[in-house]
Amino acid sequence: VKVKIPFGNKYLDAIFSVPEKKSTYGVILTHGAGGDMNFPHLVSLAAYLASHGVLCLRFTCKGLNISYRTKAFKAVVEYLKLSDDYKVSGVFLAGRSMGSRAAASVIRQLSQDDDDDYIQGLVCLSYPLHRPKVQSKLRDEDLLFIRCPVLFVSGSSDEMCEKQLLEDVARKMKAPKKIHWIDKANHGMAVKGRTTDDVMEEINAQVFSWLRENIELE
């Protein structure tokens, strides 16, 4: 179901992937610095979640400014929270690359604003912990503030997320967290000798089983 989500004086394009039965929980999903909500990995994950009973709302927000992307993500969270058609009792925020940074930033902001437990967790696909090969400055400040459960799905050869560095950050985090490494995958989740569909199946199954561990899904 295509929708337009008000954001300032314009609208964000978004698509609901709706399960057959009414869903108690939803996932809000967005893309990285390039591309949009029709990035194949997001389309695949949204379809997988909906077919397993989880409402998924994915949206496009162009712009390479992280605070702008964060504001847009916040607007989408508010939109879903107030939606009569798709009432859910809780959501997980999910993003790929820069989208996962925006999601982490929203969770940090909202957790300071109010204490309701509408936001259930964070899913980071290819979290960009540092610039390619520049490992001195880490983008970990939001992660260290978050208290809700966090799932990282990253490639073990991701040039923007050195394996040992992410494991070190995870150890410092207060939140319950899990890291699933896609063996030999790069930042775009490409693995030599494996098809995109094969890699996506692994990612989708990991995300869903983690969601199921954190909420009571049939």
TrEMBL record:
It comes from the Eukaryota. Residues 27-209 form the KANL3/Tex30 alpha/beta hydrolase-like domain. Transmembrane segments: none annotated. This is TEX30 protein. The lineage of its organism: Eukaryota, Metazoa, Chordata, Craniata, Vertebrata. The gene is Tex30.
